[in-house]
Structure prediction request, 87 residues.
Amino acid sequence: MRQSLARPEQKQFPLSIAAGRNAAVLWLENPVMSAATWRDSRFAAHACGMGFTELVERRRAFNEAFEQGIADAIVGVVFVAAEARHA
Prediction:
């Protein structure tokens, strides 16, 4: 899966972005709860005890990275299916 940032200009919170992308990968591997519930629980685990400031911005970066991770996986599946159909 492509490891791009949530947005090209979003470079301020690399730990939150990486945690969001990882949360998407984990959810796609084993979706035991809704995507939103999983995302929120993983952000809580990420931020717990870290003493982060700017939680609103960190949550936004995490959420965007989570969404982008799922979107990249969907695009990858569609691309592979299209290649298989044309092979």
Notes: Helices lie at 14-29, 35-47, 55-86.
